[in-house]
Every structure is written in structure tokens, then in C-alpha cells.
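<purpose> Linking amino acid order to shape
<body> The protein record starts here
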Amino acid sequence: SPTELEILAMIGRAQSVPSIASSRGISNKTVRNHLAKIYRKLELHGRTEAVLWAARMGLTRS
């Protein structure tokens, strides 16, 4: 989803869960739920793999 893509890009830019939650006006739990969905959809095993995936896809650029 567009929201998941934006959250993935923010993770790729080394933003923390609280920072993402604050900037999007959502709770930390909601961010973590989005991350869990992202990991499942992309078959990733955590934040490090998500950051690497985002970098490969060019999502880490501002």
C-alpha cells in the first residue's frame, strides 16, 4: 500500500518508529503493524533487511 511504501522509505532513511509515528500522526503500534505486514509481504526478516531492500529500490533518497 502507499502507506507501507512510505513507512518503508522512512525506515530506509533510518527514522525510528516513534519518529515515523509522530510525523504520520499514528501510534507506534500502528507503525509496528505496518512493518510486520511489510516484512511478511516482502519476505524480510527484520529491520536490517528492510533497510537494505529500501536502499536497493532507491527509497532511501530524500
About this structure: The radius of gyration is 10 Å.
